Amino acid sequence: MLLPLLACFVQQSLELPKLADLIKADPMSAAAAIRANIGSDELKKGSVRESGTTVLFAVETDQSNHDVILNSPDLVCFKLVKLDRSLYAAVESLADGQAFLAEFQVDGKTLRGGIQVEVYQPNPYVQGPHEGMKGELRDMGEFKSQVYSGTSRRWFVYLPPNLDPNMEYPVLIGQDAQWDRQWQANALENCARDGKIPATVGVFIEPGQATKIGDYTNRSHEYDSLNADYSKFLLNEILTQVQKLVKLSPDPAKRALVGMSSGGICSFTACWERPDQFGVALSFIGSFANIASGASKREGGHNYPFLIRKIEKKPIRVFLQDGENDLNNAHGNWWLGNLQMESSLKFAGYDYKWVAGKGFHSSKHSRRVFDQALVWWLGSAR
To answer: What is the spatial distance between Cα 245 and Cα 149, in angstroms, rounded to a whole number?
Structure first.
């Protein structure tokens, strides 16, 4: 009875809930299934595999008996079960949004530390649409910028299905297209299919590359600087090309930018500099830190919370997300920076949404709540 179950692990990726049952019913077969999917080098260092909120922890040791645990300063502790002569494993179901730092310990000694565990229930809105995407995510090729002289970048346009040539569409402009274009385009189509938002155009742009494809050397200069260059690049170079394909709404409230990390502060900066053109910033794990420190060492995005308090309120809306375990380095503390942003936006009377979590510097929480951000921006209440 167990052979078909074992075969499914060998032929496919690990199905962790089934693996949890197999560990209890037939530890030797569970060990074989784990080894069929995870290499020995990874197992010897200690492996962590996530599927939704279910997580596999596995360690291979020598053939002696050991006490193997996953330990965390947050008092999360799992004892791994010995499956065969040298493999220990446990499958644990965690709470949605749970995040913590952990380490593998063998007989009380750290084997591997600094493990970031962060889990969420899967969000179907960022997955490929059921029965396939009916719109088009079009590769627009390479764009050589004049605003950012000497750089080029790939970029992409998502066109909703059944495009109406007479309609002016809302537009979402996404930074870091090399990482985020597909799941964000999925969300646009899925949310529109369900009637949560109107049909919306997506424009997804990679940061500038000055040397070779994939070497995003101009990313920080474009994203972290506090000036109008990026909004100029969008208005004068990118959106003029998009308008040749589809009509875009001129209403700033229907023009949003979205980004992760430095892409988050970039989205805010474009709205801050040109609120007459861009009315909504969706910032996830935004880098409101002193990355663009400049010659003075104080020219970076950590200044925004105080500028928001001092400068007359601008007609922009802001969606902010961050996690308690985000970065803390020489540029600043991301979590504190986002808390400062939230406090300042509230003080100055801005229309904003703050979503706090426990996560690290990753897009996991972003993907979990991305449909909520789109509905907050374009939902029927608006």
So the answer is: 25
The answer, as to whether pTM is greater than 0.85, is yes
Q: Partners of 355 in the beta sheet?
A: 321
The tens digit of pLDDT for each residue in 75-106 reads 789 999 999 999 999 999 999 999 999 999 99
What pLDDT, in 10s, does the model give residues 200-222?
999 999 999 987 777 898 999 99
- Among 173, 185, 314, 319, CA closest to 248: 173
Contact between 104 and 77 under an 8 Å Cβ cutoff? The reply is: no
User: What is the distance between the alpha carbons of residues 106 and 104, in angstroms, rounded to a whole number?
Assistant: 7
Q: Is 210 exposed, middle or buried (0-12, 13-18, 19+ CB in 10 A)?
A: middle
pLDDT in tens, 315-350: 999 999 999 999 999 999 999 999 999 999 999 999
Roughly how many angstroms between the first and final C-alpha of the chain, as a whole number?
55
**115 torsion bin: left (phi>0), alpha (psi -120 to 50), beta (else):** beta
pLDDT score recorded for residue 379:
87
Amino acid letter, residue 188: L
Strands 99-106 and 136-144: unpaired
Q: Report the distance separating Cα 160 and Cα 185, nearest Å.
A: 9
